[in-house]
Amino acid sequence: MAILYHTTMTARPARILHLKEGVLGQQNDKPRSITVALSGNPNAGKTTLFNNLTGARQHVGNWPGVTVEKKEGTCKYGDYRFEVVDLPGTYSLTAYSLEEVIVREYITGEKPDIVVDIVDASNIERNLYLTTQLMELGVPVIIALNMMDVAESRGIDINIELLSELLGLPVVPIVGLRNRGTDDLKCVIAAVVNGEVKFRGVHVNYGQEVEEEIDKLESAIEDERPALGEYLGKYSTRWLAVKLLEEDEAIMEVLSGHLEADSSLFEQQEKSLAHLYSIFGEDVETVIVDYRYGFVAGTAREAVKREIEEPVSTSDRIDNILTNRILGFPFFAFFMWSMFFLTFYLGKIPMDWIERFFGGLGNFAATNLTSPVWLQSLLVDGVIGGVGAVLVFLPQIFIMFLCISLLEDTGYMARAAFIMDRVMHWLGLHGKSFIPMIMGFGCNVPAVMATRTLESEKDRNITILINPLMSCTARLPVYALFTAAFFTAHQGTVTFSLYLLGIILAVIMAKLFRRFLFPGEAEPFVMELPPYRWPTLKGTFIHMWERGSLFLRKAGTIILAGSVVVWMLSYFPSGVEYGSSASLVGKLGRLLEPLVRPLGFDWRAAVALLFGIVAKEIVVSTFGTILGVGEDQEAISGRLQGVFTPLTAYAFMAFTLIYIPCLATVAVIKKETGSWRLAAFSVLYTLTLAWIVAFLIYRIGLLCGLGG
Amino acid sequence: MSDNHLVPLGFMSPGESGILKEIRGLRHHLDNGKHDTHMRPTKRYRRGHMHHIDRGHRLEHRLNYMGLVPGESVKIVQNNAPGPVVVAVKGSRLCLGRGIACKLMVRPVGDDPDAGGKSSAGGGECDR
Description:
The structure holds two protein chains of two kinds. By secondary structure, chain A is of the alpha/beta class. In chain A, 64% of the residues lie in helices and 8% in strands. Chain A has three domains: 14-193, Rossmann fold; 207-306, Helix Hairpins (Orthogonal Bundle); 332-521 and 541-703, no CATH class. Chain A has a seven-stranded mixed sheet, with helices on both faces. In chain A, strands 7-9 form a two-stranded antiparallel sheet. The longest helix of chain A has 41 residues, at 328-368. The N and C termini of chain A lie far apart (83 Å). By secondary structure, chain B is an alpha+beta fold. Chain B has one domain (7-122): SH3 type barrels (Roll), CATH 2.30.30.90. Chain B is built from three helices and eight strands. In chain B, the strands form two sheets. A six-stranded antiparallel sheet of chain B has the order 1-8-2-5-6-7. At the A-B interface, helix 4, helix 12, helix 13, helix 14 and helix 15 of A face strand 4, helix 1 and strand 7 of B. Strand 10 of chain A pairs antiparallel with strand 7 (92-96) of chain B.
């Protein structure tokens, strides 16, 4: 079984070529489909390999029932068709985090034909820990040894043949960033599936005492076979026995659903645990972890040779500057400033093009589609006016997502968390909570999902609740519209002040939530600082596209539907003046007006805010539709001046920033926390806060004589 | 200096290295003293779902699988009080809150036999 060859990637190994002949030489009638699951530590290069394998043929969805991203893609190799699934990055396969449970449930439940374990060659010992656990799951595992170039440059010499021998698995060296070895990997996958490469079953030996108890538990499991039936078929008995010794939460929960509480299996478990505790004086889980580490360390000692002195890596040199105690913060501030600068100023250029395009389209429709009148109105006022007003912001939104993707893909995001840890600590949170905050500037939905990395539930809940106060790109159109109409000379400053307002409110709310709702200490801060990497163009763009395209889809669905609804409400009952207070929308607005009157808003603002609950861009498209001026920003600005004063406009922007996170965010909060109460609370508190803040702005403004 | 002189990782200065010896005071620091530390730590069900009584225990496992296992050699990369500590372990860089860094007990190694004694001046305080 000894696959493969030496570390040098230059000489193409004869063995692979030989395998390749065998694999590709076979004549198959139809393509064989192979399911390949990619697993590995975070930052081991899983996503890069996934992109290399599947290119653009990928699809992002969610794992059933949870909102952890699930990426799937396909690729071809000869007659074979690979269905590639990118599993979440994990360090281990305990039941301590949802990602880990997803990985092992997928592997045991769906039984992929093969699991490719991506191992970072420059950090091999820690990565192999996960490998030992994957090996126990009873599916074929191949190691893709990534970043061989980095390992070599650090003087780490890996004897791949020996490593493969010791682990009993095929090991294929690759360099993900340069797309090297991908083809070899595909070849080995195919060879494993059609049986040309055989596995030698190797598993971690937990020492005589533990192994004895594992044997006892295995026979106890066999005794319970009738009751477990289907459930047993999924897992190997050895794996279950080990999990029983670890008192794995998820497995215990399922087992106790299948078995009586006084089952002999639980009795045996209790006996084994007590026995082992009396021997080791430590909890068995720790003993098992130690043996796994022992196995990994032993393997590494044999197969990996290191130069004694580890040279200072480039990554450390960059860190000396970027996370320097004095320079770190200025650099961070500069990056943030650049992100917003690029978004606003670079985004302006293509925005003008799109605006002109929709202007032309509107005119074209207005002159060429004269009858029936209602259709013309629907297209010009409703669709082009509503959707066009929002699509104009596409470039800004994409640039913002591009910047966020760059921050993540280079590894700087973790440094930002490191730099901000001190500030976040003062809020009763820690640095890791800061990453979702930055992502919130792009969109609150992935940001709320990103809170997954926080271990403590209290920390997560606070971070989730304050996240909607981070001004996302969907709110940008609102600011752009209003600042253009009322604060022409100070557009940038006013927009900036709103972002700042959001951040200040988030700080205050975080302190209040920590004090009154979720008292206690923040979970200790433990985070990996991944080495800096050059982002690949392809990877970053795929990353940006995944998120930005959501916005496009939103424009084509929710915003379009919203625009049409608003148009209908403005157009009917037939005969009334379009968008006047006699129309349906006018009546609805009048109904709501008393609620917002104290803030200085009229019925049109009330309607815009009502529809804006669905998605905040709809605030803009609603004005575009009601005011009946199509997509032309200047015309909307002109008419807005009849509805707002600069003071109420500012209060309105503040209200839009704070009130009810959009429907998608509320839904994701419910999904992530599993609590309707928390989702409802996020709606109520933001609504109340928005009202109070807008009220204060308006009233204090009036007192200061800014009413004009 | 005695052979088993241990220094909390949070007190060591950048550039210093040592062997991680033990992780102190995590296992039971969150269980409100309800459990006798000499008994096998138990877990129990709560509302249909297993609950780790001992959150510190869980944290210890997290440190373990990120590479911080007793016996492992560690090197301080950054230590600016009152910020987090950056430590190099098994070729990766981990960022640790000061509180946790002060519970990791290290036996310093290096050319300077007094490294451990001096380091407390250069490092930071374990104030959180």
